[in-house]
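N-acetylglucosamine-1-phosphodiester alpha-N-acetylglucosaminidase: structure tokens wanted.
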Amino acid sequence: MSIRAKKINRLLMLATAPFAGLLVIMLLQSNQVAVPLDIEKYAPVNHLSDQSQQILTHLKQAEKVAVQTSSSIERTTKLYNQTTSTMSHIVQTASSQASKPEQIYNKRITSKLGAASEKVNSQRINIELYRLNPGTYKAYAMKIKLKEPSAMNMTLGKDSWGGAETTLTAVQRSGAIAGINAGGFADGGGKRYPLSTTVLNGKYINGFQSTFKDLFFVGMNKTGQLIGGKFTSKANLDALDPSFGASFVPVLIQNGKKVPIPAKWKASPLRAPRTVIGKYKDDQIIVIVADGYNENGSSGATLVELQNKLYKMGVVDAYNLDGGGSTSLILNGRVINHPSDGNLRPVPTHFLFFK
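Answer:
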């Protein structure tokens, strides 16, 4: 490039420099003015700030509601706990009050028996053993409260018709906690058969026999209540829904009243080892086993004595079971009474009690 051209370019640059500077200044000022206008109109900063403010307001409201709700829940929980505690106390009080008549009645029973010498308590049964010594005879009383019907049952000797075994053997074989001899029997053909109507597991073992003379039937129904009496028809006995039972003579007390004892049973024998069974009005069972040294009438208890004893004790139904050498009482694996034969007699039916 020539020196002349360089001079011309410098001249142009100097000439246009003021205009270029002015243009730059104008552009800068234009940007400074326009940007705030655009930010004010379109920038999301202020818009987000409004939304944040609204969210914050809602959060504060939610917090306030949560506090109120928490307080309400706390009050409700406290009220619920108080109510539950009150209801629990009411239930306990009601249960206690409801059981008081039963407790009072039971105390009346035991007050006439004395202090128990032995007890068995389980979820199925309560047994209390007492010693009786009214002066003319010695005996044992066993008071039994069945909590389940299955806690009492009857077994045939050796589980067979015509079979016989001691009550101790029957107890051991069946796993029972206690047992007594049950109904009468008749011997024949080398076997020992239950007397008259006999029911086992809800079935008549040898058919129904209408009650004759002084015989009666005594056993348990399927709800665990002692039943008994004289039955002239199978329908009458079926109406009581028997689960098991045996027969003997005579009835001592029925429906809270003494039943006249036939003269021959008063005197033959006069005194003897005895086994009687009965129930109280609350369905507790009572068993009395009287000791005697023989069957000739010189020792043991009379039926009248036992009838009077049971009546004074408040027993509402009572039945005389087989006695003499058959009389046996087993509890906790021991023979409690003193068998008049010197040893326990094998008999065909036994009432058993299970723990």
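The chain has two domains: 3-42, 112-353. The chain has a mean pLDDT of 86.

Cheers.
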